[in-house]
Specification:
With about 325 residues, the chain is an alpha/beta fold. Helices cover about 45% and strands about 20% of the residues. Strands 1, 2, 3, 4, 5, 6, 7, 8 and 9 form a nine-stranded mixed β-sheet that branches. α4 crosses α11. It is globular.
Length: about 325
């Protein structure tokens, strides 16, 4: 009888798990937990996909912002969440940077999550307040050598911070770093509180087109199709640059494979929708279809790459 009871319990549990996976995502809303504040590039990416995800899966997808500690607060929250497919972490390249940037980020980027899908990516961009007389990046470097200047970035250890630090090293110039929350960095430069910005393109492009910012260079090896008149940093002799901010989706370890597969397919389908492609294009972003295995391989290369940049720059968050 005891053996029969065990078999019965296992059978019921199997049916429960099977039904839970079959019912997903209709039992409750699926939360896209964004690691940064509203208006940040990561937030823009998440909100551009929710309607499509709901359409393709039949579920209700909602965005929740949980900024703080460079994204670590949201990351550790998702790490502790139930592995049922109802909580998805939406993060930036900072996900790969933070374990080397913080003494204790609270997670292992490779071991603690399922890399669900790699989202769009965007070059970083150097911009200035229109009051700055420099019209090119070399002119800005020369001006910074003559008088103290500061720059706003999307936060300590972000690729926007590290891109400017790489420029400072290559150009042998000292420009003081003023870290902001991602959505606030551009606003600070538009308002003139800080005259230089190093950010990803999405928050900068509307301000550039409105004439409230002056773009000097993108950090990719080639020009952006969205801003073809803005030079690539490589055109000024900085040959080692090809820096991007990318965005990714992650699930807690233990999420059922059937849900992982369904979510990956839905995310890729959403990012391939014509209206989403156009929206992301207008913000300087592009994406490529990828599997969880491909994103995992990409992530395993990104973590040590950015760890090396953090070490060489001396950047530390705490």
């Amino acid at each position: 009888m005891f053996k029969q009871l065990i078999v019965l319990v296992i059978g019921v549990a199997t049916i429960f798990v099977s039904n839970a996976q079959t019912d997903w995502p209709k039992a409750k809303p699926v939360t896209l937990l964004v690691a940064f504040a509203p208006g940040a590039s990561t937030d823009i990416v998440a909100r551009s996909l929710t309607v499509k995800l709901s359409e393709f899966t039949g579920g209700n997808f909602v965005v929740e912002n949980k900024g703080g500690a460079g994204g670590n607060i949201a990351t550790t929250q998702v790490k502790r969440s139930a592995a049922d497919g109802y909580t998805i972490l939406v993060h930036s390249v900072a996900f790969a940077v933070n374990p080397s940037l913080y003494a204790d980020a609270g997670y292992d980027a490779v071991k603690d999550f399922i890399p669900l899908a790699l989202g769009p990516k965007t070059p970083n961009i150097f911009t200035v307040n229109p009051s700055v007389t420099a019209k090119t990046l070399p002119e800005l470097v020369e001006a910074a050598k003559k008088s103290p200047m500061s720059y706003a970035s999307s936060g300590i250890g972000t690729t926007t911070h590290l891109s400017m630090e790489r420029l400072k090293t290559a150009a042998k110039v000292d420009i003081v770093h003023v870290p902001y929350q991602p959505a606030a960095a551009i606003n600070a430069v538009v308002a003139g509180h800080t005259l230089i910005a190093s950010t990803s393109m999405p928050p900068a492009v509307p301000q550039i087109k409105a004439g409230k910012l002056k773009a000097l260079a993108v950090t990719s090896a080639t020009r952006s199709l969205l801003l073809p008149d803005v030079p690539s940093i490589t055109e000024f002799g900085y040959k080692e640059f090809d820096d991007y901010t990318w965005f990714g989706f992650f699930l807690p370890i233990g999420t059922p494979p059937a849900i992982v597969e369904k979510l990956n397919a839905a995310l890729n389908q959403a990012m391939e929708s014509a209206d989403v492609i156009e929206k992301l294009k207008q913000l300087g972003m592009s994406s490529t279809r990828n599997t969880t295995a491909e994103f995992s391989g990409f992530l395993r290369a990104e973590v040590p790459k950015w760890a090396a940049v953090v070490k060489s720059s001396g950047a530390k968050a705490d």
